[in-house]
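We store sequence, tokenised fold; for instance:
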Amino acid sequence: FLLYKGRQIYSNVLLSVYLASQIIGILNGSLFLLNDYLLPGFVNLYFIGFPVIFAWVALYYMFICSLVDTRFRIKSYRWLHFLPFLVVLIILSIQFYFVAPEEKLKLLDRSSEFYGTVRILDILFSIQVVAYNVAVIVKYSNYRKRVKELTNIRPEYDTWIRIAIFTFVIACIITITGKVLGYFSIPMKVNSFFISDVAFLFFY
């Protein structure tokens, strides 16, 4: 719908790409809930979407930028936002993607050195999420100051922007809280990945 009906609007295109990237990330995480059904036959699917999660929060930030500034475009230095995605893709290509399926099964063991690398990358992802949320809030605050300087009338889509920002922030806080509890092996009655999915469902 966004690409067919709203493709002329740049923010709609960014939103559709962002949503697609987050779906890939969610599917990537869901694989680990299905280990009993997928291993060893489908071991090549694992981590295939992991680099994408390093792009989706940048895409969300750019979506918000396009809402507060209709002239916004991804060009020149803005492509550097996708550098973490590229770095993670290279790391996983070297350490996981191009190794034999039998070796991949060993790497999926949580005591493996590779899993230590994944944990570090996951922590860096959490830091990235926090940083981009701060950047989005600052961007919106500057936009509101600009609007007040020009007119006292609130733009009709301002409520939509605020809902997009603050529901996303809440969903991210819930997700990162679950990750932190997992890092310190604090037991939870409900799977943190499931809670995260529910939080983002409300955001959508």
Summary: The chain has a mean pLDDT of 86. The chain has eight helices and no strands. Residues 14 and 62 are 7 Å apart (CA to CA). The helical segments are 10-30, 35-38, 53-68, 83-97, 101-107, 113-150, 158-183, 192-203.
